[in-house]
């Protein structure tokens, strides 16, 4: 097995593992019959991001990107369906889902009908997906600032942090092997934000060991 194939399998395993962390929220929703302390937008935005990267993989004819994002999109759709089943804010969830659907359709029309040149289409789609991915990785920074102030890491998920670190790292090396910086650049912030979380766990975990039990909220 060559290095590219090894990195391909690493990307698949670690990314599916990261997406599967949502199963914890799914279990919590089924047991409590509610969506309290569980956010809906991360499921929705991740689903859109998966679909965008899946299309990028199709244009690039990259089976690794296609497979990972098909699995990711299916898992996010499952989370969305279960969230809609148990939420008390169905009107809000429906409007957000409808808005996402409109954005998806508009994006599809733009990339398929208005961009006829294959290279330009691939480049602009890669840039769009990269921007969305970077924003998703950087969005928890305000929460990390609050954790530094409070010294409480109970709202962080250590398994998700580990999964994010290995997922981002594997994709960075995979992108470097392909010389595809649309893969390298958006995954680099995931490494740094994970390292920040590891540091926070190391710094504050001992302080929180005597704290009462809690329900973790994934960031």
Automatic annotation (TrEMBL):
This protein's GO CC annotations: Golgi membrane; plasma membrane
Record field: transmembrane: 6-26, 38-58, 64-86, 98-116, 122-141, 153-175, 181-202
Membrane topology: Multi-pass membrane protein
Keywords annotated in UniProt: Cell membrane, Golgi apparatus, Membrane, Repeat, Sugar transport, Transmembrane, Transmembrane helix, Transport
GO molecular function, one term: sugar transmembrane transporter activity
Tree of life domain: Eukaryota
Record has Coiled coil as a keyword: no
Function: Mediates sugar transport across membranes.
Protein name in UniProt: Sugar transporter SWEET1
Species name: Neolamprologus brichardi (Fairy cichlid)
């Amino acid at each position: 097995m060559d290095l590219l194939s090894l990195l391909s399998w690493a990307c698949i395993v670690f990314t599916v593992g990261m997406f599967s962390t949502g199963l914890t929220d799914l279990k919590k929703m089924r047991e409590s019959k509610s969506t309290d302390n569980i956010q809906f937008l991360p499921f929705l935005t991740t689903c859109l991001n998966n679909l965008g990267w899946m299309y990028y993989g199709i244009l690039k004819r990259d089976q690794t990107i296609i497979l990972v994002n098909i699995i990711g999109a299916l898992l996010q759709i499952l989370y969305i369906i279960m969230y809609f089943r148990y939420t008390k804010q169905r009107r809000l969830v429906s409007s957000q889902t409808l808005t996402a659907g409109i954005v998806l359709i508009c994006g599809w029309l733009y990339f398929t009908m208005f961009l006829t040149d294959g290279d330009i289409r691939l480049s602009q789609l890669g840039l769009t997906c990269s921007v969305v991915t970077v924003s998703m990785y950087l969005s928890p920074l305000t929460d990390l600032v609050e954790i530094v102030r409070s010294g409480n890491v109970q709202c962080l998920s250590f398994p998700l942090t580990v999964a994010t670190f290995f997922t981002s790292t594997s994709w960075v090396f995979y992108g470097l092997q392909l010389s595809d910086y649309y893969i390298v650049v958006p995954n680099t912030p995931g490494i740094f934000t994970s390292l920040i979380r590891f540091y926070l766990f190391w710094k504050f975990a001992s302080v929180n060991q005597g704290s009462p039990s809690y329900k973790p909220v994934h960031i």
